[in-house]
């Protein structure tokens, strides 16, 4: 999309992607904008958050997610499998993230004292300090890039809508509904 497009033209181009993807079965223009707009805004916000965290703290959003969960856990410690479950990521993906954090001295793996098969992950003091600073920066990013752009009750409407959609899917993800 060229940068010289006016804001309305950029929004129309985003909505047109849904029609191009779905072809003759495309939904209405408003529905297309709701769908493709959600995807586009999500992409941009995720990329912006990632850039902000990497640029200032050399942390990905996933790395901060692991550290944030550890910072709230008793003794700053959780099982590696619990971290994967909480983040909705595979154990191998979380393990790679923990490898990166461990190399930087931000977390440490330890044997689980109550289950020899399990591995605990503990946040270090430097990891806790970095987590707190990065979370403050992420909160500023979310506020300025998202929340400040909403009007009136839009945040509540979005929260209610996403809560309902997420509850509808449960843990199984999206499934094609036959008509």
The CATH superfamily label of one domain reads Winged helix-like DNA-binding domain superfamily/Winged helix DNA-binding domain
Describe the main β-sheet briefly: 3 strands, antiparallel
Structural class: mainly alpha
Query: What is the name of the CATH topology of one domain?
Result: Arc Repressor Mutant, subunit A
- The percent range for strand residues is 5-15%
User: Quick one: how many beta strands?
Assistant: 3
* Alpha-carbon distance between the two ends: 34 Å
Q: Order of helices and strands, N to C?
A: HHHEHHEEHH
Q: What is the general shape?
A: elongated
In order across it, which strands form the biggest sheet?
1-3-2
Q: What can you see in these coordinates?
A:
The protein is mostly helical. Among the domains are: 1-48, no CATH class; 61-135, Arc Repressor Mutant, subunit A. Helices cover 64% and strands 7% of the residues. The chain contains 7 helices and 3 strands, in the order H-H-H-E-H-H-E-E-H-H. It has helices spanning 7-22, 29-57, 61-72, 80-87, 91-103, 125-145, 154-169, and strands at residues 77-79, 107-111, 119-123. The longest helix is centred in the N-terminal third of the chain and has 29 residues, at 29-57. The chain is elongated. The model has no long low-confidence stretch (mean pLDDT 87).
Summarize the topology.
Elements lengths: L6 H16 L6 H29 L3 H12 L4 E3 H8 L3 H13 L3 E5 L7 E5 L1 H21 L8 H16 L10
Antiparallel strand pairs: 1-3, 2-3
Helix pairs in contact: 1-2, 2-6, 3-6, 4-5
